Amino acid sequence: MQGTANNNVANSGYLEIISFHLGKQVFCVNIMSVREIRGWAPSTTLPHSPPHVLGVINLRGSVIPVIDMAIRLGLPAIKPTERSAIIVTNIAGKLVGLLVENVSDMITVNAEELQPAPDVMPAAERALTKAIIPVDKQMICYLDLDALFSTADDELAA
Amino acid sequence: MLISRKLPLAAALLTIMSIGVSSVVSLQIGSSAVNEKVVEKLEAVVDGRRNQLETFLANVQQDLTATSQNNLMRIALEGFKYDWGFLGAEVTEELKRRYITENPFPEGERQQYDTAQKPDAAKVSSYDQTHERNHPQLREIAVSRGWEDFYLVDMNGNVLYSVSKNDDYASNLRSDAWKNTGLGQVFEGIVGPNEIEKTVFADYAPYPAAGGKAAAFMGHALNSPMGMVGVIIIRMPSGKIADIMSNTAGLGETGETVLLNAEGYLISDSVRTEESDALVTSIKTDLQADAHGSEVVFGEVEGYRDMQADIAMTGVKFDGADWTIAAVIDKSEAGASMVMMRNTILGLSLLLLLGAMAASIWFSRSLSKPIEALVDNMRRLAEGDTTIELAGENRKDEIGEMVRSVAIFRNAAIEKVGLERDADETRSQTERRRQDREAEKAAEDARMQKAVDVLGDALHKLAEGDLTIHLDTPFIQSLDGLRLDFNASVEKLNATLSDVSENILSINGDTGELRAAADDLSRRTEQQAASLEETSAALDEITATVKSSSERADEATSKVGEAKQSTDKSSKVVAEAIDAMGRIEAASGEISKIINVIDEIAFQTNLLALNAGVEAARAGEAGKGFAVVAQEVRELAQRSATAAKDIKGLITKSGDEVKSGVTLVRETGEALGMIAEHVSAINGQINSIATAAREQANGLTEINSAVNQMDQVTQQNAAMVEETTAVTHRLTSGAASLDDLVRQFTLSGSRPVSVSVQAGVSGAAKQTAKPGPAAPAAKSSLAGRAKSPVRAIDGSAATARPVQSPARNMMNSVARAFGAGKSDNSTAASQDDWEEF
């Protein structure tokens, strides 16, 4: 996937992203890793799961986990409303639902606009942020889903 | 004859008559009642016995009929008849030997013998066996029914069986010996006419088999399905009939009831006799011929049991027998109670008679004795003896009244004598006194005549106006007072007329003043009338003003009412406005819901468009166009979401506006309520103003009428003033004529009576101010009086003192002169009020 995204960027010089809000901040993921976007539905809680794993939902017969992105990213937990959305992503061949506050836009950006994240953050945290994209007056944080998933996986294993 | 003999004789005669008649009548009534009682009793007893007997006979008949239908009888008869044939030719002798001659029981108890079969006998007779089998039952039936005997007879007349085993047992009823007995008659009565349903009866007749005693029989056919097979006969239970007849309850010591056959012989034995009477004794009477029906006949019979008896009879009808029941009782016993009653009544009458006679003699003696004494006394009184003693004055009856009347006569006689003596004395005294009085009266008359003459002369002079006369010669004592009074009167008249002429002077003066005052009064009255007219006009104007203000107040009230109605309508409008606002709010809520739906749809569309975009991106180059469409759709969705949000905001805002509008409208309603209240208050105020205005109008009307009244009064006053002026003129002329009158008298003391009367107005005041110059020689009283007007004019010092009225003064002096006549200078002391004008 990473490769595909990179290829996408490399090939065309353009990158398509889905941006969403968490609190006041805007994040985005590569559109190619997104399988679909659905409205929020209550999830079934799993016992002894970490705080950012909300539980599992039924997506047309297959059970997929849902992760609260705000907690995962160290932000205050968001309260799911009817306007919240779950972005179903395909990360390393697994379907994972990401609970976000509001899907705001589908944007096509030039690869040149991608700027690396500054070095002030710890390495583990920095690994989650692939780049920062300035769009208009907003700063969109481009998330590396593979890293997010691997770390989450580690935490789940822990 | 004297009353003292007449009274007891009459009383005794009356008593004897009344008691005798009542005794005879009560005896008559009593005897007839007793007779009726005897008759009723006998009739009732006879009727009772008849009913009892008929019931009993009917029972016997029924028993027999029932027994004849009993199967046992037929079986027994068949058995006996069968066995009868085995007893050979001498069957009668054989059976009589077995059951009568060889019967171990004596005659009368032969029925106890059950069978003639000897236990040890070798030969067995079937008759005996049949007898042994049936006899106890048949005997039981006969005994229980009371039958004297009971027979079973075959069609040939053979008595196959009898209970009592008398001579008739085993005989043939068609034989000569039995043919004519009751038993034979019954048998023939049934078998002859083949009577199979009814009973047949033979009346009582002497019966050889019963030792010649009376016996009656009754029989009934014994029927089988093939027809009559035999006859069952009973001898009637005479004992039970005798029991019924021997009941003598309620019949005293000689009474009884007996049953007679058609010839009058007794059928049952009489209980009153020792010997047997059945068919021996008889009662011969013609009554029996009448007693055939159920009617009860009553009569007398002689000879039965050697007595004279009352008898009641009635017929008993039973199956051909013609019987009569009779109840007899000795007449002496029936009448015993009557004899006792007669004796009692006679004894009582005698006692009553003696008592009544004694009482009447005593009573009439008590009346006649005082009457005799009184008659004696009256005779003596008529002869003039008033010393009689009267007894019984305290009695309450008529004799007492008579005695008291005689006492009054006696007292009147005594009084009359005393009165005659008194009258004689009185008459002589009166005569003496009358003569004395006549002598005195003659002397008196002479003296009186002289005095009258002198007085007549003096009066004559007085009539001519001479007031100088004086009577000096004394009259007789009784008339001397007259002389003194005359002198005093003349003197008084003299003085009075002097005063009168004085007073006329002052009246003249006063009249002038009076006229001036009347003129003044007239002028002031005119002024007052003018003022009153002005006042009245002013009042009319005020009244009009008040009326118009009252009308204004009424108008204001109606306006206020309209304003109140308007405010009421406004409050309704306010309420409706609040309702409308509420509806707007509700509609806004609905719109909000719809907007939410639209928002939701926009959100979903947005999600779909995103997904489409995702799909398009994944499709790469091929999805480019689709990505654009998805983008457009997303934008539309976002716009509709934005629009929905805006509308939502607007709706919320309008909701707020509506709320504030509701508040404002409510406040408006409250303000309107306040206005309505104020309007009501104003209405009240205006109403009170209107009321006050009306009251003012009323007050003004009253004032108006008062002013009118004042006007009238003023008019009347003016008229009065005119009258007063006229009266003043008349007064002046009156004073002049008065003076003329006074001048007719010749007064002693040589004072000429002359007063110049001034009629002029101006001179009147002057005349009043100074005392009359024409009276210089006035007496001290006149001088004192002349001062009084001066004192009145003096002013403040004398204001409290009433002014003397000259006219009144004059009148007073006249009054005094003709009144008490004891005070000569009373005019000086007189201080009468002068306030009249």
Structural description of this entry:
The complex is a heterodimer of chains A (158) and B (837). By secondary structure, chain A is α+β, with helices and mostly antiparallel strands. Chain A has a single domain, classed as Beta Barrel (OB fold (Dihydrolipoamide Acetyltransferase, E2P)), CATH 2.40.50. Helix content of chain A is 22%, strand content 45%. Chain A has a five-stranded mixed β-sheet. The N terminus of chain A is likely disordered. Chain B is 66% helix and 8% strand. Chain B is built from 17 helices and nine strands. Chain B has a five-stranded antiparallel β-sheet, with helices on both faces. In chain B, strands 6-9-8-7 form a four-stranded antiparallel β-sheet. In chain B, helix 1 packs antiparallel against helix 10, helix 2 runs antiparallel to helix 4 and helix 11 packs across helix 12. Chain B is flat and about 200 Å long. The C terminus of chain B is likely disordered. Classes of the chains: A alpha+beta (158), B alpha+beta (837).
How much helicity do the residues of chain A have? Answer: 10-25%
What proportion strand of chain B? 5-15%
Number of strands of chain A: 10
Largest sheet of chain A: 5 strands, mixed
Structural class of chain B: alpha+beta
Strand content of chain A: 35-45%
- Gross geometry of chain B: flat
Most extensive interface, residues per chain?
A: A-B, 15 and 14 residues
Instruction: Let me know the average pLDDT of chain B.
Output: 79
Q: What is the CATH T-level topology of chain A?
A: OB fold (Dihydrolipoamide Acetyltransferase, E2P)
Query: Which whole number gives the mean pLDDT of chain A?
Result: 80
Low-pLDDT regions of chain A:
1-11
Shape of chain A: globular
Give the termini separation of chain B.
108 Å
CATH superfamily of chain A: CheA-289, Domain 4
